[in-house]
Write a structure and sequence with these properties.
The complex is a heterodimer of chains A (about 110) and B (about 110).
Chain A lengths: L4 E3 L2 E4 L5 E6 L6 E8 L3 E9 L2 E5 L6 E5 L5 E5 L8 E8 L9 E2 L3 E5 L1
Parallel strand pairs in A: 2-11
Antiparallel strand pairs in A: 1-3, 3-8, 4-5, 4-9, 5-6, 7-8, 9-10, 9-11
Chain B lengths: L3 E4 L2 E5 L4 E7 L5 E7 L5 E6 L3 E5 L2 E6 L4 E6 L8 E8 L7 E3 L3 E6 L1
Parallel strand pairs in B: 2-11
Antiparallel strand pairs in B: 1-3, 3-8, 4-5, 4-9, 6-7, 7-8, 9-10, 9-11
The chains are: A mainly beta (about 110), B mainly beta (about 110).
């Protein structure tokens, strides 16, 4: 079965712009979570969605937002981009939150803000 | 919050050597996974192992939940094993937030 698909793979944006990243989970998985990876902070949780509802949000400013659609696909949006938003953004999918099968990650979107 | 510590932070080995990576966590967890991050950034799931021992080829993992640690063993290392290995845990009351360790960077020299 297809894995977790993230698009685009690479993105270059200018400070002040906004960006939307997409994540399609494994077929049948209903939970999607997002993570930011930077050299300085490591892997940090952004937010998690299940059944189109945000269940939890990490410690990120309001410029970071997301949503989930009825087909479980998720998007995250970052507005008013800053240089520090340059990072690898990873999406993880699972059957349910707090499941007993673990999480599967996509290949990520590498965002560069210039 | 829970702390997840991985050791060693860096490991350089010759091809064919064996290695042990350690993950300590400061509180009880209900999920623990080991991941290998490849050079392109993707996190590859190695083991889902909240307790017990599992083996998959040259890799095996053991989690002793009561003592709050997990070990990842890599035998007969190959250059393709190079990369960063992450331990990630999930707490029963964390609303599905995964917490990652800082990783072990493994370099296998030919």
């Amino acid at each position: 079965k297809a894995g977790v698909t993230q698009t685009p793979r690479y993105l270059i944006k200018t400070r002040g712009q906004q960006v939307t990243l997409s994540c399609s989970p494994i077929s049948g998985h209903r939970s999607v979570s997002w993570y930011q990876q930077t050299p300085g902070q490591g892997l940090q949780f952004l937010f998690e969605y299940f059944s189109e509802t945000q269940r939890n949000k990490g410690n990120f400013p309001g410029r970071f937002s997301g949503r989930q659609f009825s087909n479980s696909r998720s998007e995250m949006n970052v507005s008013t981009l800053e240089l520090g938003d340059s990072a690898l953004y990873l999406c993880a999918s699972s059957l349910f939150p707090q499941n007993n099968y673990g999480y599967t990650f996509g290949s990520g979107t590498r965002l560069t803000v210039v | 919050g829970i702390q997840v510590e991985q050791s060693p932070p860096d490991l350089i080995l010759q091809e064919g050597a064996n290695s042990t990576l350690r993950c300590n966590f400061s509180d009880s967890v209900n999920n623990l996974q080991w991941f290998h991050q490849n050079p392109w950034g993707q996190l590859i799931n190695l083991f889902y192992i909240p307790s017990g021992t599992k083996q998959n080829g040259r890799l095996s993992a053991t989690t002793v939940a009561t003592e709050r640690y997990s070990l990842l063993y890599i035998s007969s290392s190959q250059t393709t094993d190079s990369g960063v290995y992450f331990c990630a845990v999930e707490r029963p009351t964390s609303a599905s937030k995964i917490i990652f360790g800082s990783g072990t960077r493994l370099s296998i020299r030919p």
